[in-house]
## 1
Amino acid sequence: MNSFSALTLLPLSVAIVGAVFSGVLLNRYVNGKRRPHELVWGIAFLMFAIAAGSQVYADAVGGWTPLSARTFYLFGAILNVGYLGLGTMYLLFSRRVARLSLIVTLLLTAYAIYSTFSVPLNVSALANTQEVDWKLLFSVDVMPRILAGVFSGVGSVIVIAGALWSAYIFWRKRIMKERMIGLILLAVGTFTVAFGGTLKGLLHNDDYLYPTMAIGVVLMFFGYLQTIRVSVAKAKVPEHVTSNA
C-alpha cells in the first residue's frame, strides 16, 4: 500500500474497535469495582489499537518509518497478547500469583521497550511498504523477535489453556455458565489473532492479519462481556468460588 486506500479500512477498523473496547474496559475499571483484570485487558486492547494505528499511519504517509515500524512491532507483535495473559492471571488465579506475574511482565515490558527502540534496524526491509519482512528488519539483533515469541507464546497459552480449563471446571460443577461461555470466547478470540499472525508470517501476506485480528478482538470483547454477567449470579455462588473475580 503506497498510499491511503480502501485496504486501509481493515487496520483502521481494528484501531477504532480496539480503542472503543479499551475505553469501555478502562471506564469500567475507574468507575466500577477496580477489578485488575479489566485494567490490564483495557491496556491490551489499547495496544491492539496502537499497532493497527501504526499501519494506518504508514499507509497515510506512503510507507513505514523506523519509528512507526518499531511502534507496530512493540505493541502488535510483542506486548498485546502477553497482557491478555496477565489479565487472565488476575481473573483466574490468586492475587499473590497475579502480582508476581505483574512484576515479571513489567520487567519484561521495560526490557522490550528498550530493546525494540534501541537495536539497529535493517532499513532496507522497509522498502516494501506493503509487506515488511520483519525478520529481515530485526536481522541485526534478533532480541525483539525473541521477546515477541516469549510474550505471544506464553500469553496465548495462559489465555487459551486457562480459559478452556476453567470453562471445563465451571461446566463440570454446573456453575457460572456466563463466565464459562466468556472464557471460551476469550480463548477462541486469542487463537484467531494468533492464527492470523502465523499466516502472515508463513505466507508473508498482510491480507490475513487484520481480518483475523478484527474478528479475534471482537470475540475477546464479547467474551469479557460474558464474564462480567456472572456478577448478577454471584449471590447464588459460594464466596470461595468467586473470590478471585
## 2
Amino acid sequence: MSDSPETSPAAYRGIPVAQVIPLKATRKLIADHMIQSHLTSARVTSLHEIDATELVALREELAKNPEKTGGLKVSYTHLLTKAVAQALRQHTILNSALVEKEILIFQDINIGVAMSLPDGNLIVPVIHQADQKNILEIARRTKELEERAKQGKLSVADVQKGTFTLSNVGMLPEARWFTPIINQSQCAILGTGAIRQVPAVRDGQIVIRWVITTSMTYDHRILNNGIYIEYFIQTLSRLLQNPSPIELGG
C-alpha cells in the first residue's frame, strides 16, 4: 500500500492544504511505535564528542587496500556497529530491557541499525550477535539487509530480537547532536553525527583532529545513575581512538 503524497484542495482551519499524506501502512506502524516509546521510557539524552582521528585513518587504509577486505566497502556504520557491540560486552547493563518489575540483561548482543528507505520511512534491521562477528561479516550482513530493505523483502526475523540500536546520520555533513528515540523495549540507543575536523590542543599545541558527536538516549528507569553512560562512552572512545583492538579479520 503506497504512502505517496496525494493532492487535495481541502483546507484545515482556514489554511489551504497543498498535499495530503495518508498515515497508513509502514508510516502508521512507525508512528505508533514512536509514541509508545515516548510514553513508556523515562528518557535522558547524554551528549559527547569523541576523537575519531584514528578511526578515519583506519577506514582510509581499508579503502586504499581493498585486498584487506576482499573488495568489500567498509563504512563508518560498520565500524561503529562493531565498536558498540564490543563496548557492550563490558557494560552489559545497557544491553537490557525493563519487563514489568525486572531488568533483563541479555546474553546476546544484537545491534539494530537504523536505515532510511527510499520512500522516507525508517526501518531497523538487526545484526544478531554482532559482538561475535568481525567487521567484514558485519559489513556483508548490513549490505544484505540494506538491499532487502530497499526491495521490501525483509523478513520478520530480520527486524526482531534487537537489544541495542545505533542510528548513524553521519552521511549528512551538518549533522551533530540529536535526541534519538529508544526502540522499545531496549535500554538505550546511540545516535552518531558527522565526522568533522576541528582544532584541538595536543601537548600544548593546536592541531587538527577528526571528531564524531554522539547522542545517547537511555531509559532512566533502568539506569538510575548516568555514570553508567559515561563509563560506556569512555570504553567506546578508547576503541575509536585506538581501533586496532576492533576485530577486523576473517
## 3
Amino acid sequence: MIDASPIFLTKAEESLAGAESELANGRFNNCTNRCYYACFQAAVHALMQSGIRPPGRASEWSHAFVPAQFDGQLINRRKLHPTDLRSVIARGYLLREAADFRSTLVSQTEATRAMRRARLFVAAIRARGEF
C-alpha cells in the first residue's frame, strides 16, 4: 500500500502559500477558503501518520470525520498536539462556508485571524515531525 500522507502535506503547504498570497492581495474570502484547506489537509496528513483512516471502503476524508478525529484522537486521547489546536478546523470550516456560500464578505480582520490560526496549525504539525 502506498503512503499517501506526503500528498496531503504537499497540498497543505500549497494551500497555506495560496492563503498567504490571497491575504496579501486583499482577497479575503479566498484566503479563508485556503486557510481552511491548509488545516484540513495537514490534519489528514497527521491522521494518516498516526494510523487513522476513514471508515468504509470509499476511504473519503469528510469534513465531519477529519476535525472529529483530529480533536478527539490526536489532541484529547493521544495528546499528540496542543489543546489550542482544538476546534481550529471546525472554526475554519464555518468561516469557509460563510466565504463560499453566504451573501456576506469575510473581513480583513477575519481573514487575518484565519491566516494566523492556519499558520499555527501547520507549524504544530511540522513541529511533531509530520512535515
## 4
Amino acid sequence: MQWSTPKKPAEITEERLIEAILNKDFPPNSNLPGERELAVQLGVTRPTLREALQRLGRDGWVEINQGKPTRVCNYLEEGNLAVLAELARHQGDLPENFVHNLLEVRELLAPAYTQAAVVSAPDVIKEALEECLDLPDEAEAFARADWHLHHLCTVHSGNPIFTLILNGFQDLYPVMGEIYFRNPAGRKASREFYAGLLKSIEAGDADLARQITETAMQRAAELWPSPRKGK
C-alpha cells in the first residue's frame, strides 16, 4: 500500500515562493517584502515563513542576511541541483533555451556514463537495448524506454552523481521525450543509436560505445525543435 503524506505548511509556502520567483513577481536581485508583510500576503505564520525561507536559502533561491532584506538570488548562477529539480517540475516557467542547455549537458555526460556502464554491466545494458529495439512505433513508448536506458546506464556507471543529476529531471524527461519522439526522425535516430550501441557491446568495445553515444546525443540536440525556427 502507498501512503500519501500531506505537505507541511512550510513546503507549500516554499512552492508558492518559488512560483513567484519563476514568474518574476520577485525577480532576481530584488528584495522580498519584510517578514511580517510577506507572511500576511501568503496567509501563513511567521515561523512557517522562516522555515520556508531557510529551505530556499539552502538551495540558492534567496540570500538571507541578518538585519537586512532577503534578496532573491539569480538562481541560474547561485542555485544548486535542487534548483534544477524545481525547474524541471515547473515546466511552464522554464528559462529560454533551458531544454537546449539540458541537451548540451547530456551530450557531455551520456557518453561517459554509457561507456562506464558497458564496461561494468554489459549484459544488463544489452538486455535493455534489445527491449528498445522491439518498441512499438509510439512516442510515449520511446520516451519511457529511453529514460529507463539512460537511468540504467547511470546506475551501472559506478558514479551515483550521474544518477542524481538525471533524477533531477525525472518530471521533465517524459514530457521532453514525448515531444522529441513525436518526430519520426527522432524515433529513427534512436533506433539507430540502440542498434549501434548493442553492436558495440557485442564487440566488447566500450570506446566505440562512447563514440556512438556522443554522436547520438549530438543528433538528438539537432532534432529538438528550435524556438528560433518557430517550431
